[in-house]
């Protein structure tokens, strides 16, 4: 396959993924409404029609035929020939999954043939935007980091000279401003909204709820919050595990909720916000809350604690992230193997983040994830201790104070007096 055709297929697949995502959100919205809203049906139909045309143009006949069949069903729904109901919604979801699988398959598999070279379907958005391979952005970021280090060394070497030489000092200042602007632009290029990762969880919640016979509504807040693209990608799997876990363990069956004075439809909120230079992601449900007694019994049975009754809630709840930990009575397609939450914690730690749990029996549970804005370049403070030099991440620095001998409690004790306290 020549390079031009490979590039064409790459663009086709990217555009098709975007169309499939829009179609999926439309189908989920239709399912929540429970009726065939004409505008929503038409938006999904339009997506199927676009995929059919693009696929036929590039020679992906299998995808084009599948999109055509889906388009036919949607048109019958729009025209009122076919009534909208749960089986139709499920059938369309399955068709969408089939389209996605066909699109992601190797060229020979998805078409049982090699697509003929053909002109790409021109997208208006391509006039003002450009898709860039992420590896190139990573390389650009690496180069920026190297420049940062070199600039720091040069500043140290020229420190005394620049203080007395106005021309040298001015040039050094200008270099620092240019470097700061370059760094900001590179980081901006890597920033993406959490929206796509958040919206993908609607399908996760829907499928998990259907599998467990529950009714669940997923609300999204702050999906326009931007983070580094590496964080957005690595958080996707963690969010999937946590949403499935909330549906399976948190949200009660409709009858149990009604008996407890709650609405039959459970509510899960997935939100994001900026706070003190970090990104906060919260997953909150209005379910039954964490079962302290059950978690404690499980901790005791596998030797994590001797007496769970003496362990504070915060510490006890943290054990649910241990590898192999599960309180499920049976293994299902959703949970019970004790690997989901372990994956969540490992993924968050790899991003230099933290996760906290707050839970109230009968009212629900909230997981709070705190993440850095970027994991690419870390601002740090250079400190010297003895013969060693260390860089402390600025996010870990709370305060800087001048050191004087008078602050020491006693010579060589290693204890300082800070505002009268050791």
Describe the structure.
The longest helix is centred in the first third of the chain and has 31 residues. The chain has 422 residues and is α+β, with helices and mostly antiparallel strands. The strands form three sheets. It has a five-stranded mixed β-sheet with strand order 2-4-5-7-6, with helices on one face. Strands 1-3 form a two-stranded antiparallel ribbon. About 4% of the residues have low confidence.
Tell me which oligomeric state these chains represent.
single chain
Instruction: Please bin the fraction of helical residues.
Output: 40-55%
Percent of sequence in beta strands: 5-15%
Calculate the terminal CA-CA distance, rounded to whole Å.
Answer: 70 Å
Q: What ranges have pLDDT less than 50 throughout 5 or more consecutive residues?
A: 113-127
Mean pLDDT: 82
Overall outline: flat
Topology overview:
Blueprint: H1 3-33, H2 38-58, H3 61-78, H4 86-104, H5 107-111, H6 134-157, H7 159-164, H8 166-190, E1 191-193, H9 195-212, E2 216-221, E3 226-228, H10 229-250, H11 254-259, E4 266-275, E5 278-285, H12 292-301, H13 313-317, H14 340-350, E6 354-360, E7 364-372, E8 380-385, E9 388-393
Parallel strand pairs: 2-4
Antiparallel strand pairs: 1-3, 4-5, 5-7, 6-7, 8-9
Helix pairs in contact: 1-2, 1-4, 1-9, 2-3, 3-4, 6-8, 9-10, 10-14
Give a brief rundown of this model.
With 422 residues, the chain is α+β, with helices and mostly antiparallel strands. It has helices at residues 3-33, 38-58, 61-78, 86-104, 107-111, 134-157, 159-164, 166-190, 195-212, 229-250, 254-259, 292-301, 313-317, 340-350, and strands at residues 191-193, 216-221, 226-228, 266-275, 278-285, 354-360, 364-372, 380-385, 388-393.
